[in-house]
Amino acid sequence: MHEFLKPDQLGHIIKQVNDEISMLENALNEPINKNVESNALADILDRAALEEERKQQYISRYRNGAQLKALQRVKFRLQKEPSEYGYCETCGIEIQFKRLVTVPTAENCSDCQSIIEVQNRYKARH
What we know:
The protein has 4 helices and no strands. α1 packs antiparallel against α2. It is mostly helical.
């Protein structure tokens, strides 16, 4: 089945992915706090605080949605081609189990990810 991940390790990752998907789906199904009208608040600071809170809720929802999509892709990959999961897309070596548990959506090993991040910082500056 898998060359470097043991069945119990793969099962652990699958359970973790399913749990995270469930948690994110629940979070995305919660309504955004819109029940207080900003015009009803007399104080401008109260209105500003309310708008900032709403903004943070929208940002959080966007991030959760992106993470949910990434986890759903991992789940699909684990179901359809589990032997392909866990290999670095850049160099092809095995991604460490600890990394996969920490970041189940990891597509690169730690070394390649570090290089990619340095390249991205360099591109952002120039």
